[in-house]
């Protein structure tokens, strides 16, 4: 918007089109966009928070004309090239320091200076492969850089998701305004990574800190979109100077690593010894040229504000030209002239850490504004700046330009900042034609600073020429047909397996609860056996807490569904299923992720407070049945997606393996609970209902439920998809299809356990099945589950592994 708060000319087409839609139509479209954000799982975390927040999206994009964008693009490319050359010199010949052009303190004083990287020549001869700059437009209309990002820049995935949502919300407007596409940038970036690899047909991985990273959802999105293997530190192992990923088929070579873990946490051998986010030996593999990295350890050095203050003179010395986009004026107090000026202008500048937020132990990324300080704090700041000026910078306060924003049904000018991304290719630097824009409620006296929780906006670069459609897919003539299953990391297999087990346990609990509630209304006083056995099974599975066992059966049924404090309740199992799914999220479709979230929501039949609290309203039996049946329908939809839409590769095998192992064990326990001893006909009816076989039983046996036929149907029937025998056949088939570590033709331990069990169940007679025989089968299944875990999954000690195995069979 201009100085008078009026829209600039290139905004008129957008605003006129929006006016034709009308406010009601815009509200409807953005309500759909909000649902789309939830469905796609576009979230972020504030530092220190466990819960994910939806990423808010501004209703209006930021519009940039082609001429203005060309200046930004040129300036960012120049800056990225300059920083790459500086890193080459700092970790190479070090001429700039030896010649006095670059003060040694600006390098050695930074905690991001990684000494083990000295003398290293990176694979592909690039120190910088992915770069981001935080820029802002001042009130004078000029763009300035206020922060360089090279450690592990975040935001490209959010920019991509914003584009997908806005293009779907206003498709015709997006086309009519000739908006430049983002796909070509990601295509070029991926090609640049592949070109840097030391081998042809490289394996490219994205290293994530894990599910509790503030931007994990973005990392999942990028891995899925670019076709990268998403790995955590525990997935990686360095041997003989090379980096490998642990997979179900053994160790597989890693060629390129896109790093989203800070360098200090990447290698506990040479950096932070307490880190569990990286892989021991990672630095050594990089030094030997066995892997290319984006960006290598040590690239974060260029993020320091001390170095930023020197970039204007360094650009003239190294490139022979001025910066095309100037910095926000930054004075580094490690130089006497700059320190004196900073002191003289203390009340007009923001004081920030030269090498991060550590100065004074309290300067965060927003910095300190002297007029806001008390007398003691001001005195302390001046003393610290006098004693160790090298730790401080003084930046100008920058009044931000504004962009139109939709606020309370009207257009309002709002300040904004923009993060722009650049990627290295064989032909130089390419800049994403757009970026990650943050829109703020008001001007911050702390200047250009990305405020937490501010909504983001899509960035539309309006081309003067016709836009060609771009895609990550290769031209049809160049496409190479591939049908191999790909690589499945052990950690991903582990989480898919437990996701299957938790979903199956959720279903089993819901079936128990439904059977209990249906019988409470019609129970006869002379036959309490079915209800007593149902309650015992709920207690045995931990569906209710010990201090709740005295409650009425209807209350216990309610708690078994919705008590988040009971580790075995349906809600707790569903939440664990979603948690394990989130760790393998890049392998799940949007439909599946949406259904998992819907399952958890359907099971929250009570307020978020403790379901066991005295006096809290519980649902009636019919309401509990409705809740359980709604959740069972969601699980059925999930099962349908798994069976019909999941590619038959190793990931599906482990998802189904978990489901089959859990179902077989649960069926054994249900058979022992409801058919042992002298069960009544009603108890056997419950067993037949729990294995969903009423129709089949009645079509085979005209008489009422009897013990031998019921046990045969639950344990031995090879045609019943709920029987133990059916599960064992599926388990054995999956194990036979999984890759072996050795190509010697010898069965591995899990298969040596499943194949004999399959044969024994196929040859058993119904009359030989009693409680002791079922218990033996159950114990063999438990041992088989442990054997699968030992063979295929990673075994770093972790609270996650302990938690998972504490809650299920």
UniProtKB/TrEMBL annotation:
Q: Where is the Circularly permuted ATP-grasp type domain?
A: 61-439
Q: Which Gene3D superfamilies match?
A: 3.40.50.11290
- The DUF403 domain sits at 488-793
**Domain of life assignment:** Bacteria
What is an example of a Pfam family matching this protein?
Answer: CP_ATPgrasp_2
Under PANTHER family, the record lists: BLR2978 PROTEIN, BLR5612 PROTEIN
Q: What is this protein called?
A: Uncharacterized protein
């Amino acid at each position: 918007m201009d100085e008078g708060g009026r829209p600039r000319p290139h905004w008129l087409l957008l605003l006129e089109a929006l006016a034709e839609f009308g406010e009601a139509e815009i509200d409807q479209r953005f309500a759909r966009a909000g649902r789309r954000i939830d469905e796609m799982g576009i979230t972020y975390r504030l530092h220190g928070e466990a819960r994910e927040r939806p990423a808010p999206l501004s209703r209006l994009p930021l519009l940039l004309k082609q001429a203005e964008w060309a200046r930004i693009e040129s300036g960012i490319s120049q800056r990225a090239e300059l920083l790459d050359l500086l890193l080459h010199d700092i970790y190479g010949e070090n001429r700039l320091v030896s010649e006095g052009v670059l003060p040694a303190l600006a390098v050695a004083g930074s905690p991001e200076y990684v000494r083990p990287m000295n003398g290293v020549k990176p694979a592909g001869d690039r120190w910088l492969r992915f770069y981001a700059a935080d820029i802002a437009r001042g009130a004078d209309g000029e763009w300035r850089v206020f922060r360089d990002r090279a450690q592990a820049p975040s935001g490209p995935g959010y920019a991509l998701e914003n584009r997908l949502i806005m293009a779907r919300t206003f498709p015709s407007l997006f086309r009519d305004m000739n908006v430049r596409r983002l796909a070509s940038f990601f295509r070029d970036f991926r090609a640049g990574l592949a070109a840097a690899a030391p081998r042809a047909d490289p394996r490219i991985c994205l290293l994530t800190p894990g599910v509790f990273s503030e931007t994990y959802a973005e990392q999942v999105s990028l891995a899925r979109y670019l076709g990268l293997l998403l790995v955590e530190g525990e997935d990686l192992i360095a041997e003989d100077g090379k980096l490998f990923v642990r997979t179900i088929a053994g160790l597989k070579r890693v060629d390129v690593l896109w790093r989203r873990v800070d360098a200090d946490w990447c290698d506990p051998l040479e950096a932070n010894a307490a880190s569990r986010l990286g892989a021991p030996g990672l630095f050594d593999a990089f030094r030997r040229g066995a892997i290319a990295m984006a960006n290598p350890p040590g690239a974060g050095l260029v993020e320091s504000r001390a170095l930023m203050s020197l970039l204007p003179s360094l650009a003239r010395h190294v490139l022979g030209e001025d910066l095309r986009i100037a910095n926000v004026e930054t004075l580094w107090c490690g130089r006497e002239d700059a320190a004196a000026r900073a002191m003289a202008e203390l009340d007009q500048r923001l004081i920030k850490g030269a090498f991060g937020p550590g100065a004074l132990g309290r300067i965060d990324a927003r910095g300190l504004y002297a007029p806001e300080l008390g007398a003691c704090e001001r005195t302390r700041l001046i003393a610290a700046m006098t004693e160790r000026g090298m730790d401080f910078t003084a930046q100008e306060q920058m009044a931000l330009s504004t962009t139109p924003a939709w606020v309370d049904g009207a257009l309002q000018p709002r300040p904004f900042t923009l993060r722009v991304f650049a990627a290295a290719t064989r032909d130089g630097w390419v800049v994403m034609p757009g970026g990650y824009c943050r829109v703020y409620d008001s001007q911050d006296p702390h200047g250009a600073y990305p405020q937490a929780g501010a909504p983001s906006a899509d960035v539309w670069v309006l081309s003067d020429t016709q836009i060609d459609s771009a895609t990550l897919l290769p031209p049809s003539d160049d496409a190479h047909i591939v049908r191999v299953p790909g690589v499945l990391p052990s950690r991903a297999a582990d989480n898919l397996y437990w996701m299957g087990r938790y979903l199956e346990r959720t279903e089993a609990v819901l079936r128990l609860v439904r059977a209990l509630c249906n019988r409470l209304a019609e129970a006869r006083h002379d036959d309490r056996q079915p209800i007593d056995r149902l309650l015992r099974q709920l207690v045995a599975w931990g569906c209710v807490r010990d201090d709740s066992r005295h409650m009425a059966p209807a209350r216990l049924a309610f708690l078994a569904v919705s008590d988040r404090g009971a580790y075995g309740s349906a809600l707790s199992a569903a939440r664990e299923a979603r948690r394990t799914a989130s760790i393998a999220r890049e392998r799940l479709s949007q439909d599946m992720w949406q259904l998992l979230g819907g399952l958890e929501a359907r099971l929250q039949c009570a307020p978020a407070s403790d379901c066991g609290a005295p006096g809290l309203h519980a649902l009636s039996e019919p309401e509990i049945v409705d809740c359980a049946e709604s959740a069972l329908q969601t699980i059925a939809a999930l099962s349908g997606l798994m069976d019909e839409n999941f590619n038959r590769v190793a990931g599906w095998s482990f998802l189904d393996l978990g489901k089959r192992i859990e179902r077989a064990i649960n069926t054994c326990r249900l058979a022992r609970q409801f058919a042992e001893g002298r069960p009544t006909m009603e108890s056997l009816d419950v067993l037949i209902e729990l294995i969903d076989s009423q129709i089949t039983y009645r079509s085979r046996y005209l008489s009422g439920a009897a013990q031998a036929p019921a046990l045969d149907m639950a344990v031995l029937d090879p045609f019943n998809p709920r029987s133990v025998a059916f599960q064992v056949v599926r388990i054995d088939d999956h194990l036979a299809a999984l890759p072996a570590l050795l190509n010697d033709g010898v069965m591995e331990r899990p298969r040596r356990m499943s194949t004999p069990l399959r044969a024994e169940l196929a040859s058993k007679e119904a009359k030989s099945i009693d409680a002791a025989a079922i218990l033996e089968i159950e114990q063999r299944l438990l041992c088989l589950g442990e054997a699968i875990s030992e063979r295929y999954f990673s075994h770093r000690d972790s609270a996650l592994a302990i938690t998972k195995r504490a809650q299920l069979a």
